[in-house]
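Mods, move this if it's the wrong board.
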Amino acid sequence: MAGEAPPAEAPAWQQGRCHCGAVRFEFVLASHKGVSCNCSYCVRKAALHHRVPADNFRLLAGAEQLSSYRFGTMRARHLFCRTCGIHTHCHPRSAPDEVNVNLHCVDALQDVRIELSLHDGRGWAAVP
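Not the wrong board. Structure tokens:
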């Protein structure tokens, strides 16, 4: 009918995995934006974070393979595969009901230009 809005596009679900493939997940990719954090942990793991609402993240396989690491305030949960050691995602302390996906775990995005922003986790980490 004339005047009707076109149907909304389906969300762009992407799949990711750890190196060995034991942990697999999918998430809605709302943009090609990633965040690099300079806190002591993120610098060492070299993750590229992409935050999504928890409803837009699904763990497909490997829940039993995930280990968790917490430090500082103990509020953030950093998750990684206990077999290959790859950090796949985390629940950040600044938004514990959301998920930061590691874009480096998404094969389909390896040749896509990601708009990068920086988070000063080193300075922010001292805040309770």
